[in-house]
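Researcher: I'm comparing several assemblies side by side, and this is the next one on my list. It has 1124 residues spread over four chains. Same procedure as the others: predict the full complex and return the structure.
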Amino acid sequence: MIEGDFKEMGARSVNNIINKGGTILKSARSKEFMTPEGRKKAHENLVKNNIDALVIIGGNGSFTGGLIFNDEYKFPVIGIPGTIDNDIYGTSHTLGYDTALNTVVEAIDKIRDTASSHNRLFFIEVMGRDAGHIALNAGIGAGAEEILIPEEDMGLDRLLDSLRKSKASGKSSSIVVIAEGDKIGKNAFELKDYVEENMPEYDVRVSILGHMQRGGSPSCFDRVLASRLGVKAVETLLEGKSNYMVGLIKDEVELTPLENAVKGKSQVDKELIRVSDIVSI
Amino acid sequence: MIEGDFKEMGARSVNNIINKGGTILKSARSKEFMTPEGRKKAHENLVKNNIDALVIIGGNGSFTGGLIFNDEYKFPVIGIPGTIDNDIYGTSHTLGYDTALNTVVEAIDKIRDTASSHNRLFFIEVMGRDAGHIALNAGIGAGAEEILIPEEDMGLDRLLDSLRKSKASGKSSSIVVIAEGDKIGKNAFELKDYVEENMPEYDVRVSILGHMQRGGSPSCFDRVLASRLGVKAVETLLEGKSNYMVGLIKDEVELTPLENAVKGKSQVDKELIRVSDIVSI
Amino acid sequence: MIEGDFKEMGARSVNNIINKGGTILKSARSKEFMTPEGRKKAHENLVKNNIDALVIIGGNGSFTGGLIFNDEYKFPVIGIPGTIDNDIYGTSHTLGYDTALNTVVEAIDKIRDTASSHNRLFFIEVMGRDAGHIALNAGIGAGAEEILIPEEDMGLDRLLDSLRKSKASGKSSSIVVIAEGDKIGKNAFELKDYVEENMPEYDVRVSILGHMQRGGSPSCFDRVLASRLGVKAVETLLEGKSNYMVGLIKDEVELTPLENAVKGKSQVDKELIRVSDIVSI
Amino acid sequence: MIEGDFKEMGARSVNNIINKGGTILKSARSKEFMTPEGRKKAHENLVKNNIDALVIIGGNGSFTGGLIFNDEYKFPVIGIPGTIDNDIYGTSHTLGYDTALNTVVEAIDKIRDTASSHNRLFFIEVMGRDAGHIALNAGIGAGAEEILIPEEDMGLDRLLDSLRKSKASGKSSSIVVIAEGDKIGKNAFELKDYVEENMPEYDVRVSILGHMQRGGSPSCFDRVLASRLGVKAVETLLEGKSNYMVGLIKDEVELTPLENAVKGKSQVDKELIRVSDIVSI
């Protein structure tokens, strides 16, 4: 928008890209758009090119920018929640989240192959920013013995207790999934040191899954969700509405005021934490 | 149950199987259980082995058997919907369905690679029994140009129209996803003949995805859903209830009377048919 | 070449396509090039665009066309063997073959999940034209109980014998991999009828893997092989040579006269047939 | 062997495990076997159980143990090279290596999705102990802009030069694959600091792929190779031979004296380094 680099798209323009990870737009965080001058330039370019609305795929930062832009120029904006972290209020699923869960679970399946080979304890750190969605769901999905998420302060003693119980119950190896934003007070490497000190019988390994979680061919769920949200975003604009985020709530596509989406806090499913405690005995 | 072949299981018995497709139980359709004598034998064996409830993973057939068994012997039964076809009333997702969607979409992605190489029209038949869930969702997910499901009588003329429009819009190749139970009046091979007769410019290929759709390592969604439904099934029995199916309704685990699950009919999402019409232009 | 549709390519032109299946060239069998007029037009266009050599990725048909073209116009041509069928003389591996093997093995793994669930016999037909390379290697890789390839006339009696032995040895289900070009005298569906007639205890299913075998993201082996063959093709042309195919022979990139590549016949590894007989007991 | 924990295996004992990663044997490095007392116990147990030969799947450590054991007790031993690192003399491919290459390439494909989205430089560290096999092959396979292996001392200046050229040639993002044993004098994190200091325009990220490289369902190549090596190992023992490693040399299964396998050094393909320099411009 700031560089005036536009391209008209038709139905065929997205031909054969539904199976690709990443973005074909190559847009990224823009410092210039954070300045009034940047936004002025963007608005002039939009008007000059007869563009009359913005659909913003992103998270809180992008949505906040959209709200400011709308406030200044009355330019219609609709948000689509796109992040693997699932940490956006107003939708049960963000675009990319389901794909990331499958990527994480496949990676942990591979690590477990080596864990059961070699009698080890693995600390696996997954993404999620300040939210435990990925850790909790992928942890259950991967059959982790323990899941550490920022929403639950487990405490180091309880971790040791749990690992001891797991060992006693006959497990020869264990997987602990740790959310990157975990507030347990120690990071994965410090945790490793702590456990090795207290349970010297364990050979602890750390694996940080890293950026591969952000790519990959999208899952069917994400592709269908993207289609549903995209249709709703355009139809909402055609109805003359602005400043909404389209999202999935209880399996239905719903609108949430963009302001609420930005201010609200997505919650991990407390019931799922309970399920996780039961199945990871 | 009929052969008296039981095995006590603890928390460790399912260690390291969460990532496996298929069943470790190796149970299958039993003709003997359909007879009063067979069920009598099953009941005696259950009682003899101090088993006091049944959790049945399956579809309408298994649930009907469970209801009859409960009626005859007052034996507590809970059903868990397990089929890739997603054709069970009382749950938005059956176990295995999400995995099958990803398998189908990956297979069609591969076929599309060759379609764009060689200017072809592909008719791809997917599973789903009498329901179009897999075809509709995987069709959208795979970017199919046309989706034929039993719930919608498209008519052959509209199919030709749609293919002509797709060709005119610049697509050099097309994917048509067909549900196996499609009631369009012709099967995939007959459709091929019909289209080739009327659009000789197309080189039509047929691919029946077949049994690979029923296997494979489960998706994270299916693993988490299985954990949630399993916990609920056991807790429902512990509460003294019987004759319910546990299922997912609007993202929550809910109970549906087993009788309703058997009699009801799962519906494809009409809104999704509309989305599919829009995105597959 | 015939349409004069050229595009200059540099080192960056193939940026980020190494992971894609299919072809970005979208070239295909050309009837016009089979005529002297077509080739004349092609030659004129090549000369007009200052192109001084051809690298042909394909199989026998494309190479034959290249030889005729070279014969008529003394235009330098080098062939690169590209087909999933691995049926080209002068190379142990064609481009795409290793990827197809992995695709087939993954598909059969999924089918086996359902086979062990349900006590079945599966006939799985794989590609390979008149050669058994895919069937033999993927059959061993997938742990098939029996592999039927055109290079070996097994005879129907031996098939039944083998299935009976497999059953007697305790296998509850069996996978039979059949090459599409199998000369056993019956196709997969006729074989099914024959076996069911003679071994009614089996529930036989047929799966034709089909076109998905031709697509998908290439394996590391295929990507490295493509890089090696591409470099050698260009360097061979720079040395002033023509009418060679570059191929892999005993792990080294070697040149084979294109005429020999066309006339020769690739052989399945007889030793591998022996290994297959041993491991598939 | 030391614990006397044996299990007789027949043809059916490995039923349905060909698709699994990891080991079902759960054997691992044994300190006791490194002592004369441990080996004495092992020999007594073997004799007591009528076992008359050992097939050792492993690397230099396991083979050295086997040689000492044979020296002390004249007990027949045959080695099968099993490690993802491909660093064993006497075979072009070790078991697990091809699978690891595909795992690494798939992971880097995912990371590249995010790299092209966000204009970044990625340093990706892969396994390989002191050998660059994985880094070199997976680096070419993943289209890496630069590959750092212990066999080639690139020097930091040349790395910066190369990155600058890559940037100048129009690449918006770059992948650098680093072997874990790289002798460039800095590890991945130190390299990151160095590059960011000298090329502040880059946002450098580090990803250590880690233990997931050691697991996962084996590729078709690895499954076929395992079948071939296994058959040869047993047949070699039946011929009364001992102290050999079976391996793949120029596409044929060959014997190498176990002592040479232990003392020799596997070499990366120098020609491949040249290819990598050409294709990664």
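Model: For your comparison table: Residues 11-96+218-263 of chain A form a domain with the Rossmann fold fold (CATH 3.40.50.450).
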